[in-house]
Amino acid sequence: VIRDILEIVRKGGEVKKTEIVYGANLNFERTSKILKWLIEGGFIELNADKYKITEKGEDIFREIEKVATLFKS
Questions:
Q1: To 10 degrees, the CA torsion angle through 49, 22, 69, 57?
Q2: Quick one: pLDDT at residue 36?
Q3: Non-local CB neighbours of 14 within 8 Å, separated by 6+ positions
Q4: Residue 16 lies in domain
Q5: pLDDT band at 72 (very low <50, low <70, confident <90, very high)
Q6: What is the dihedral sign for C-alpha 31, 34, 40, 44?
Q7: Which residues pair with 50 in a beta bridge?
Q8: Structural domain tally of the chain?
Q9: Does the first or last residue of the chain, that is N or C, have fewer Cβ atoms within 10 Å of its Cβ?
Q10: Cα angle vertex 11, ends 9, 12, to 5°?
Q11: CA 25 to CA 65: how far, in whole Å?
């Protein structure tokens, strides 16, 4: 789920919560909790109701992708 949200924000540049909810197939309550955790961790930023991935978020996304690749092998 974290990977999905980071990917949506990463690809979208700046996205609204609704786009994340539908893109990750989650409800608003769960999405809000995860987004709060990602903001507090410095992985994404919220600016004018839009979410944007940070450098730290880009780094962790790449690491998650590496791990996912290992499991696919």
A1: 10
A2: 98
A3: 47, 50, 51, 52
A4: 2-72
A5: confident
A6: negative
A7: 47
A8: 1
A9: C
A10: 65
A11: 20
Helix (H) or strand (E) holding 69: helix 55-72
Task: Specify the residue for token string 């608003």.
Answer: 28
Query: Tokens for 14?
Result: 């700046």
Question: Is the pLDDT at 31 greater than 90, yes or no?
Answer: yes
> Which amino acid is present at 38?
L
| CA 71 to each of CA 6, 10, 50, 64, 68: distance values in angstroms, whole numbers, following the listed order | 19, 22, 32, 11, 5
- Which CATH number covers residue 23? 1.10.10.10
Residue 15 is classified by DSSP as B
The first and second tokens of residue 54, run together, are 């940070």
